[in-house]
Design goal:
5 helices, 3 strands, 3-stranded parallel beta sheet, alpha/beta
C-alpha cells in the first residue's frame, strides 16, 4: 500500500499507462461493514459467490480473475474518502487495512506476474493520497 502523499489523478493516469486496471473504491458515507462490503462488491465487480465477510473479501482479492488485466499489468485500487469510515468504525477499518495489505503481499510474493497496488486517498480524484491512521498489531484471525 502507498502511504506517500501525491495527487491521485496523476497516480491513476500513470497506473493505466503502465498497463494496470484501475478501480476506485469510494467510501464516502460508509459507516458500517455491510455498506463497506456492498461498496467493495460494486467497485471490484466481485462475483456473486463472494460473501459479505472479511475472509471472503480476502479470498476474492487473492483471485481477481474477473478483473481485466493487460499483459504485464496489474491492478491499482484507489480507496477514497475513507476517513469517515475509519473514524466511525476503527476496528473494522483496521481489519480492512489488514485484508488489503495481505492481498498486496500475496500478489507481490508471486513475483513475475500481475501485482495489486492499493492507494489510500482522501477527497476527490485530485486530492492528496494520505496514510492510514496508526494501527495496533492484530491477530491474523478475522471474524464475520
Amino acid at each position: 500500500m502507498s502511504l506517500d502523499p501525491q495527487p491521485l489523478a496523476p497516480a491513476l493516469e500513470a497506473a493505466e499507462a503502465a498497463g494496470r486496471t484501475t478501480v476506485r473504491l469510494d467510501l464516502d458515507g460508509v459507516r458500517g461493514k455491510a455498506e463497506l462490503m456492498r461498496r467493495c462488491g460494486d467497485a471490484l465487480r466481485l462475483p456473486e459467490w463472494v460473501g459479505g465477510n472479511w475472509d471472503a473479501l480476502a479470498d476474492a482479492l487473492r483471485d481477481l480473475s474477473w478483473l481485466p488485466v493487460p499483459p504485464g499489468g496489474g491492478w491499482l485500487v484507489a480507496v477514497t474518502s475513507w476517513r469517515g469510515y475509519a473514524d466511525a468504525r476503527p476496528g473494522e477499518w483496521e481489519t480492512l487495512v489488514e485484508v488489503l495489505e495481505e492481498a498486496v503481499a500475496f500478489w507481490r510474493e508471486r513475483g513475475g506476474g500481475p501485482e495489486l497496488v492499493v492507494l489510500l486517498a482522501e477527497g476527490g480524484p485530485s486530492g492528496p493520497v494520505a496514510g492510514a491512521p496508526p494501527r495496533t498489531p492484530r491477530l491474523k484471525r478475522r471474524r464475520g
